[in-house]
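Fold it.
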Amino acid sequence: MTVKRPEGEGDSRRPGRWGEFELIRKFLSGPEAESAPGPGAASAWPTGQGVVIGPGDDAAVLRPPGDRVILQTTDLLVEGIHFRRDWGTPRHLGWKSLAVNLSDIAAMGGQPLHCLLSLALPPPWTDAEVMEFRRGFLDLACRFDVALIGGDVTASPGPLLISVTVNGAADPARVLTRAGARPGDVIWISRPPGAAAAGLELLREGSPEVYPELLEAFLQPRPEVELGLACAAGGRVRALIDVSDGLAGDLGHILEASGVGAELEETALPVLPALKSAARNRNWNLREYMLRGGEEYSLLGCTPEGQWENFDRALREKLGRGVYAIGRVRREAGLVLRHADGREENIAPRAYDHFR
């Protein structure tokens, strides 16, 4: 892990700011003067599985995970596009920057193992804010025993850039993809959709305190790692994806990869009471939030109809909760929403696109 300053740029340091090596040392080990982390908070990085040499050398050295295959995913978060400084705290941002990657591993039915973190820090970010970011990142890493094995830090004229890569492992015979859905499969989702998009809208409106549940869904999403592992182990899931671009859009990814279509039941879509209340009070289009709202990081899957009851029962026994059946896969292409009166409406399965 090294710190670089761009050629030709002015000095990005400020009085009292740690030097580059001190910043790295404190990020890895924690500052001696840091206050007690508080009940349930983590203080030291997990050692992880298969780490022979961790951060501090030119590269990490990892032991291959036996007969399992390696999963790898990466995400880039850019200030002004994915987040703003006045949305939440650095601790929220640290948590979320790891959560979005863990969600990808969960969607493949894998166990997250290691992560790499790279930061391009602009002058406004203080040492205290960097350490608060560390606290949020560390809290989630410890929850799933994910070892930080390296990364990079550089000075930046702005904005803040965050890049996270996560390695995971999975049984090669049980890796889950988007491509396995078959006609007749039950389509299910792990959480009511739309909460995160509503939380984002509340932040934009400047009134996040009214619906804390919606705000938390956006700022501190919960990656479904345990559910993803249960889906892989149970052998009753044919296709799986995490909901990062919205229910309709991510279901569209499954349909395209599997060469099938789908029918959603409007009356089966689970509605979060807080979202329903916010939509009513603010005259929002509730259905649009539920179908198009992204950054949920729930799981959306397809299970053979004949195995649905056993699948749901097994989840309740193992995890203490089930999932929501919301529709069926069908042979005909396209995505249809069936209303309570039986009327069918064609829905565009579009996902969020950064370049459109």
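The two ends are 35 Å apart (CA to CA).
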